[in-house]
Amino acid sequence: MINVTKTYLPNKEKYQKYVDEIFESGLITNSGPKVKELEKRLAKYLGAKNIILVSNGTAALEIAYRTLSLKGFAITTPFSFVATTSSLVTNGISPIFADIDENTLNLNPINIEKLITPHTSAIVPVHVFGNACEVEEIEKIAKKHDLKVIYDAAHAFDVKYKGQSLLNYGDISTLSFHATKLFHTIEGGALIINDDSLVEKARYLINFGIENAESIPHLGTNAKMNEFEAAMGLCVLDDIKIIKEKRKELYEVYKDELKDIVKFQKQNKDSTENYSYFPVVFESEEQLLRVQKVLNENQINPRRYFYPSLDTLGYIEPKQECAVSRDISKKILCLPIYPELRKNEQNMILDILKREIDNGN
Ligand SMILES: Cc1ncc(COP(=O)(O)O)c(C=O)c1O
């Protein structure tokens, strides 16, 4: 079976060594030495000054909203994983969807301003598939209307914008380190906080809001990363260069072979790519379903990512409709891309795609 992604597993002996150290120390969670070491190494590697590791990317979003005391409405994108929106709703913030750009697949800044009201407290864009948003345009709008910006950067590990970390834009950026991601910690995530004065509050929030034995100043939750997860992160980080190189090779072959028959996401020209995903946009949903069916028959499972468009979620009020996002979400498929994917497997995927698209024309 070839799935859209496959978890990267590092050298077992190396991980075992860390596990032995954890057993010797007896410290398995509560901001232990491995979590601290990984925070330090990631801050340096990513070029981000304040990084807080948490239990997953959804918790990172929730802690970000609480750290910034968001309320009322947040303008966000309907073309994302459901956690971008559901995390707002569970924190009492109503998502207002601004439609996406049909080429970049990111929230289109042109659609933001007309949705701002006195009750809007933030903008929550997503760097979809690691493609950098129009961060300067978004910053201008946020400044003009005194809004916070939280970037869901779950896909944007290691992306640079104009030579520096993309994660340094916005008030807070959040990452997901789920097992399927480019860099992972089994389950995990992180907050990148640009305002130093907010770091302490976020650290209390991930630990039940506790400051010390006598003081609980905030309404917190439990969002701590444990030592076994951090150890996995330390191992995967050692291999990140080779992980990216392998993905890049596959990415370039897909791009070259498919350039005349499907549409690709338009990349931000000021940012680097991290080769996390390989999304292709078909002419129609019918074409997508036909190709997907034959791939599935051959034990290949690409993923309809993101589908459905989040403005169709039944629990969202008020009801909204974003035509571009709905249209794209019906026509987009992410192809398998992961370091272990073999050349012959990729060729099989390409042959089926080419044949089925050609047959339908
Ligand atoms: C854009 C986006 N945001 C948030 C998340 C949630 O991350 P996690 O699965 O680590 O909770 C994901 C997960 O895939 C995602 O793709």
Helices and strands in order:
Blueprint: E1 2-3, H1 12-25, H2 33-46, E2 51-54, H3 57-67, E3 73-76, H4 82-90, E4 94-97, E5 120-124, H5 135-145, E6 148-152, E7 160-161, E8 164-165, E9 172-176, E10 189-193, H6 199-205, H7 227-238, H8 240-258, E11 278-281, H9 285-297, E12 300-301, H10 323-331, E13 332-335, H11 343-360
Parallel strand pairs: 1-12, 3-4, 3-5, 5-6, 6-9
Antiparallel strand pairs: 2-10, 7-8, 9-10, 11-13
Helix pairs in contact: 1-7, 2-7, 3-4, 8-11, 9-11
Pyridoxal-5'-phosphate is lined by residues 56-58, 80-81, 83-84, 126, 152, 154-155, 176, 178, 189.
Shape: globular
Task: Kindly report the name of the CATH homologous superfamily of the largest domain.
Answer: Type I PLP-dependent aspartate aminotransferase-like (Major domain)
Can you identify the CATH class of the largest domain?
A: Alpha Beta
Query: How far apart lie the N and C ends?
Result: 28 Å
Strand elements, count: 13
Range of strand content: 5-15%
Radius of gyration: 21 Å
Task: Classify the secondary structure makeup into a structural class.
Answer: alpha/beta
Unreliable stretches covering 5 or more consecutive residues: none
Helix content: 25-40%
The CATH architecture of the largest domain can be given as 3-Layer(aba) Sandwich
> What's the order of the H and E elements?
EHHEHEHEEHEEEEEHHHEHEHEH
Strand order of the largest sheet: 2-10-9-6-5-3-4
Oligomer description: single chain
Total of helices: 11
Bound molecules: pyridoxal-5'-phosphate
Can you summarize the main beta sheet? Answer: 7 strands, mixed
Mean pLDDT: 97
CATH fold-type name of the largest domain: Aspartate Aminotransferase, domain 2
Number of domains: 2
